[in-house]
């Protein structure tokens, strides 16, 4: 698959094929997810050609070093943290259209998850592939955020301090690393 950049997402506009269009320069008059009256709408992508598409997103969760060690040693009381988070990430990818209002339901052809454990954090990268009329970066982002939320849920009992708070725990640096598009 080529590394040709594309504009937009699965909630993208039909104007994404304009190579000179830069979404950061869009004005209110150019917004495609609103009607002239200001109502939100889903963009019609029906006339766009199918393309092979891939997006990769990443993020990380800060944890106590003892929690990371418990995850490495599979000593977390709720079970296998990373296996559970992987399932959660994949489920989130498949259901993005249900939680992001203007996303299209797209055919997911592949989801890759990659966890990297550091001394005090876990990074998760999620790669999503589809063949269709719209991109899949929102799906990759949903996979990352849900996967990291599942990690938090699995370890919250050991991450809480004496007051029931999470001073050392945080989800950070969620971002899209790459988008690719190639005509099918």
UniProtKB/TrEMBL annotation:
Q: Which reaction does it catalyse?
A: (8S)-3',8-cyclo-7,8-dihydroguanosine 5'-triphosphate = cyclic pyranopterin phosphate + diphosphate
Residues annotated as domain Molybdopterin cofactor biosynthesis C (MoaC): 42-181
The biological pathway it contributes to is: Cofactor biosynthesis; molybdopterin biosynthesis
Highest taxon, organism lineage: Archaea
Q: Where is the composition biased (Low complexity)?
A: 7-26
- InterPro entries with a match to the protein in the record: Mo_CF_biosynth-C_arc, MoaC, MoaC_sf, Mopterin_CF_biosynth-C_dom
A molecular function annotated in GO for this UniProt entry is: cyclic pyranopterin monophosphate synthase activity
Instruction: Give me the residues that bind substrate, please.
Output: 102-104, 138-139
Instruction: Tell me which residues this entry annotates as catalytic.
Output: 153
Q: What Enzyme Commission number(s) appear in the record? A: 4.6.1.17
Q: So what does this one do?
A: Catalyzes the conversion of (8S)-3',8-cyclo-7,8-dihydroguanosine 5'-triphosphate to cyclic pyranopterin monophosphate (cPMP).
**Record family assignment:** Belongs to the MoaC family.
Q: How does it assemble?
A: Homohexamer; trimer of dimers.
Protein name per UniProt: Probable cyclic pyranopterin monophosphate synthase
Q: Which organism is it from?
A: Natronorubrum halalkaliphilum
What is the name of the gene encoding this protein?
Answer: moaC
